[in-house]
Amino acid sequence: MASISLAISELTPGKPHKIEIAGKDVCVARIGDEVFAIGDVCTHSEASLSEGDISDYKIECWLHGAEFDLRDGKSLTPPATEDAEVFVVTRDGDTVTISLNS
Ligand code: FES
């Protein structure tokens, strides 16, 4: 399974980060000491979610304002109607590892 590991200190809280795992763009978000990983593709019209804004546990697409729950990828507000992909994040001390689902 493809994965990438980073130090949690590399992730600024409240700011989305774009990473690539095996050619797949992933948006990583740190909220406090929690880290979430969501597909970096808005399900509305494929804008990059890592260019959006984070508030609470939501990320808002910069293009038309759809919001997704970072915890489970749920589409929360239109115009997106499909959920975003989410990825497994594990933590070992100060290291977080994000893994593709297959
Ligand atoms: S591309 Fe994200 S809301 Fe339209």
From TrEMBL:
Xref: SUPFAM superfamilies = ISP domain
Pfam families assigned: Rieske
Q: Where is the signal peptide?
A: none
List UniProt keywords, sorted A-Z: 2Fe-2S, Iron, Iron-sulfur, Metal-binding
Q: Name one GO molecular function term.
A: metal ion binding
Per UniProt, residues of the Rieske domain are 3-98
Species of origin reads freshwater metagenome
InterPro entries referenced in this protein's UniProt entry, alphabetically: Rieske_2Fe-2S, Rieske_2Fe-2S_sf
Q: Which PROSITE patterns match?
A: RIESKE (PS51296)
Q: What is this protein called?
A: Unannotated protein
